[in-house]
UniProtKB/TrEMBL annotation:
Name assigned to this protein: Very-long-chain (3R)-3-hydroxyacyl-CoA dehydratase
GO biological process: fatty acid elongation; sphingolipid biosynthetic process; very long-chain fatty acid biosynthetic process
Superkingdom of the source species: Eukaryota
Pathway: Lipid metabolism; fatty acid biosynthesis
Keywords for the protein's UniProt record, in alphabetical order: Coiled coil, Endoplasmic reticulum, Fatty acid biosynthesis, Fatty acid metabolism, Lipid biosynthesis, Lipid metabolism, Lyase, Membrane, Transmembrane, Transmembrane helix
Phylogenetic classification of the source organism: Eukaryota, Metazoa, Chordata, Craniata, Vertebrata
Function: Catalyzes the third of the four reactions of the long-chain fatty acids elongation cycle. This endoplasmic reticulum-bound enzymatic process, allows the addition of two carbons to the chain of long- and very long-chain fatty acids/VLCFAs per cycle. This enzyme catalyzes the dehydration of the 3-hydroxyacyl-CoA intermediate into trans-2,3-enoyl-CoA, within each cycle of fatty acid elongation. Thereby, it participates to the production of VLCFAs of different chain lengths that are involved in multiple biological processes as precursors of membrane lipids and lipid mediators.
Amino acid sequence: VDMQILTPQVFWAQRHGEIFLRVELSDASVRQSDPTATSCGLTAQGHGAKGDNQYEFSLEFLEPVKPEIHQKSTQRQVDIRIRKQDERWWERLTLREKKPLFLAPDFDRWLDESDAEMELQAKARTRRTALREKRGKLLNHERDFTYVGLKKGYLFMYNLVQFLGFSWIFVNMTVRLFILGQDSFYDTFHTTADMMYFCQMMAVLEVANPLLGLVKTGFFPAMIQVAGRNVILFVVFGCLDEMQNKAVVFFVFYLWSSIEIFRYPFYMLACIGTDWKLLTWLRYSLWIPLYPLGVVAEAVAVIQSLPIFDETRLFSVPLPSALGHSLSFSYTLQLYLVLMFLGLFINFRHLYKQRQRRYRSRKRKVH
Ligand SMILES: CCCCCCCCCCCCC[C@@H](O)CC(=O)SCCNC(=O)CCNC(=O)[C@H](O)C(C)(C)COP(=O)(O)OP(=O)(O)OC[C@H]1O[C@@H](n2cnc3c(N)ncnc32)[C@H](O)[C@@H]1OP(=O)(O)O
């Protein structure tokens, strides 16, 4: 039987690097496709102009192509994409000048050479922009990485120095307490003040850190903490020789250093992403008895210093003779005593919230 070969309608378009063929066959199943370096053939069963049948076609290309085809059958058509060997514009599709009857331009995809050139340039621009963005992201990532590294390095060193300083004070005082007993109370200042000055001056950085965004905490609690201690250390103890050999210095320094020998190592571990349960618990629990005791000890120191300031007239403000001789600094300190208890309330609440946050978020992580 002389079988009639049916040819489907084929539409084509090109770009500099590829050829698109659209074969008008619906619900087609491709039986055979023969891509070579110069031609392409296709045999498929599907619904075309002559109903449900087997259709086939072959095309000999004007120039060599890559011998692989990408085809996709849809309900409506078969889409074929073939890559040219050289990225060049062809003046026609087929080797023969006379185009086959079944071949027509695909106007949905059609571009002339200059439009295709523009499309190519647009694609290259998009690629370049994407590349630039990727490089930018990489650079930002690298910058972030360096910033985080420097920040962690700085915080680690800061905490280490404070830890060493307060440990030295704590150990020194403990050893002296064991050896000298109560006698050690009275020369605490002379044996540890230099180190305490150093640590408390450094602690000013704790106020700067939240301001610079280096740590995720409020500036105000840190300011209250550092300013409060520095008033006691530099003004009440530092400026009055009479205060320096009082037992209260021992209690104030011991209470301060008792928390810091746990707080700073806790921060050091946080800088390297580690967390020791016991240390975390000590950092977030010891303040509960220590903070009120600390404030009471500081208040005792302030109260003891009031008559000395009255007597020595240190920092007193001269007044017009009608109002008296001068205004003693002790009045400022009495106001400060009130502020201290306000500070205690603010920081106690802050530390309570920090404790809640820490244990709430850890619990959430466990579930
Ligand atoms: C002239 C005007 C004067 C005005 C003054 C007014 C009156 C003042 C009265 C003051 C009374 C003071 C009394 C006081 O001196 C008594 C004592 O101190 S007695 C001893 C007991 N004391 C304590 O326990 C307090 C110790 N100090 C503190 O806890 C802090 O200084 C405080 C600011 C109070 C709280 O700390 P913070 O807000 O930082 O909370 P966290 O520790 O939970 O940290 C939050 C997150 O930040 C990270 N962070 C913080 N610092 C660092 C650091 N140095 N390095 C690395 N990371 C840090 C921390 O890891 C937390 O991060 P995350 O949430 O991710 O875990």
